[in-house]
Design goal:
The protein has 157 residues and is an all-alpha fold. The protein contains 7 helices and no strands. It starts with a helix and ends in a 6-residue tail after the last helix.
């Protein structure tokens, strides 16, 4: 087994992320390796807050650092990210609030338009409102049909 994959298995075991079959496999590896078993125990104790970092923590870090080849190690320089300029944050906030206002305006207009159409449809005297082919349901789903109906027989194409 690859050494990197072994450490990933141990980390997943420590965090409790393995299914039962994988858990049993890693538990067998830990039974054969007392140093790894001690590392897992200490890591769990530190994660739960039951134990302070051990005095042998340096040896664990040294073992983990030994996995990285010497040529791959850099100078350890941290490259800070530039902070976002205030003008970009301002435009971002304006765009967020503007889109929210536009969504509210569209929803209000649509609700008013649908409500007005239904009110007119129900208030016309002498007509029976029925949900069918010529009834209220097509008017709600496709408002263009009412416009074509209002043009009259001679004006429709």
């Amino acid at each position: 087994m690859d050494e990197g994959a072994r450490f990933l298995d141990l980390a997943a075991f420590t965090d409790g992320l393995l299914d039962q079959e994988q858990h049993d496999r890693v538990a067998a590896i830990l039974a054969a390796d007392p140093a790894a078993s001690a590392d897992v125990f200490v890591a769990r104790a530190m994660a739960d807050g039951r134990a302070a970092p051990p005095q042998g923590l340096e040896s664990i870090i040294a073992r983990a650092s030994a996995l990285v080849p010497e040529t791959a190690r850099g100078s350890g320089v941290v490259l800070p990210f530039r902070p976002t300029p205030a003008s970009h944050r301002l435009w971002h906030a304006v765009a967020q609030w503007g889109s929210l206002a536009a969504a509210i305006a569209i929803a209000s207009w649509l609700g008013f338009s649908m409500g007005s159409g239904v009110s007119l449809e129900l208030s016309q005297p002498g007509q029976q409102s029925q949900v069918g082919v010529d009834g209220l349901l097509p008017e709600l789903l496709d408002p263009a049909t009412g416009f074509l109906r209002d043009l009259g027989e001679g004006q429709q194409t």
